[in-house]
Amino acid sequence: MDIIQAIVLGIVQGITEWLPVSSSAHLVILQHLFGYGNSVAFDIMVHGGTLLAVVLYFWRDFVMLLRNLVFTFVDIFKIGRKAFYRDEDRMMTWYIVLATVPIVIVGLALQDYIEEIFNSLLLVGVALLITGFWLISTARKSGKGDVTLKTAMWIGLAQSAAIIPGISRSGSTISTGMLLGVDKARAARFSFLLSIPAIGGAFALELLSIPAHDMFSLPNIVGFIASFTVGLATIHFLLGVIRRGKFYLFALYCWALGTAVIVYSLL
Asked: What is the pTM of this model?
């Protein structure tokens, strides 16, 4: 892989990881149309870039989550079960933990079928259309609620659907929160925080399978920097779009791309 290709792929990862357009769908499309196929080490590095972007953008919340995970088990000896819901931040932390469980279960259940799933362009096209309908359903939603245990679990189930390429993780989780009456900004914050254990867990598992000396080639480092930089900017951009109530407009892109992919796969 040359430096230009690494930059382009890093940019694509940085944009599509956070916009509600499915990064995995774009990966499958690139593989089919352009013979795109990069190393596992490069994949890990660019995913590491987008993971670092969300951790740094929400670094105060990230520190809060870590602190609450630790101090829950300190407090449990003092106040028992109440340690898990001592305050709003503590509850948010454990909502994220519980909402992560569905994607872990689905990921383990489908691990033998992942390659087959990622080889189907038709599936990607249909999934993109579904994502579009998920997004457009939020057009008239303006809830004022906060995340509860019930809404957190529904959002977690929505995230597990994003294992299918074409179902956007951010699109499905933010849309589900908004459809359940959660304030759009709170739904977005919960979605981004929920992505950290999901992406971080997958990143850690992949990292263990690659020798360290294979990770730090120049193209890999360039791809990491590109995905991190663009990912940081994309998070900021998406939050602005959500605040303006225009999140649903990404449905148009998903429908256009999904339709094009379906037509191409049937030719």
From this structure: 0.91
